Amino acid sequence: MIKIAVCGALGKMGKEVVEAVTQCPDTELTAKIDIAGGEFKTIEEAHKSCKIDILVDFTQPKSIFENAKYCLNNGIKIVIGTTGLSDEQIAELKTLSKEKNTGCLIAPNFSTGAVLMMMFARQAAKYFDNAEIIELHHNQKKDAPSGTSIKTAAMMAEVKEDFTKGNCPETETIEGARGGTSYSNIHIHSVRMPGYIASQEVIFGSSGQIMTIRHDSMDRKCYMQGVMLAVKHVYENNDFVYGLDNIL
Questions:
Q1: pTM of structure
Q2: Given its phi and psi angles, is residue 47 left (phi above 0), alpha (psi -120 to 50 degrees) or beta?
Q3: How far apart are CA 54 and CA 177, in angstroms?
């Protein structure tokens, strides 16, 4: 039986993870951690009281890095769904995971459909010289752009150095009108609006044609299949993984 603690257990995603862990015959929920009033307010408190094989973290960008370092330094494997980690922080966690021989999986998105979208975008990137990303989330999401869009751009950049071929020199009359520029000059546009959960479209263009790859999450339950796949992978392995695409 895999003993699981959920950090951010009272949040919208945390509640879904708690239910998924409880319903799975291979896992046991040993701790609900949340500063807003869970069984435990900190990982340290839970660790002193409970056996934890894996911690699943859906908290806040400002806390995830320290949470992850605590787990890895104390032999707790971790599955990270919280976005907002910088490239430098991810690299540091990768190093720490290897040093401690403790599994760590970071996934910007746990929806299998969204991960397939990213994989399809990387494949399409070989055949188009121009691309931009629009990501749309609810207005309570604190980080922008989304981790999914950043990961998508990084995957596309693996196969091409520039996605602005033939663009004219640009001047923004309103700062930020062209979005943020990411890997291989891919522009990312972030929309925050009540009514959305999580949506993303990758737009590819060339002379005479446009192709759009889009994924929409309508319910947070769609992430749970990916979360449980990640839990089982981390339990069986001590490697560092960035992106659910690497275990599908």
A1: 0.80
A2: alpha
A3: 42
Question: Among all residues, which ones are annotated catalytic?
Answer: 137, 141
Each residue's pLDDT tens digit, 67-83: 999 999 999 999 999 98
Give me the DSSP letters along 14-68.
HHHHHHHHHH-TTEEEEEEE-TTT-SBSSHHHHHHHS--SEEEE---HHHHHHHH
Two tokens, residue 203:
């737009």
Q: From residue 231, give the alpha-carbon distance in Å to each of 27, 87, 99, 102, 129.
A: 9, 23, 21, 13, 37
- Go through the domains of the chain in sequence order and give each one's CATH number: 2-106+221-246 (3.40.50.720), 112-217 (3.30.360.10)
Q: How far is CA 171 from the centre of its chain?
A: 32
pLDDT in tens, 150-193: 999 999 999 999 999 999 999 999 999 999 999 999 999 999 99
Q: Copy the structure tokens of residue 225.
A: 């299949």
On the CB side of 147, how many CA atoms lie within 13 Å of its CA? 23
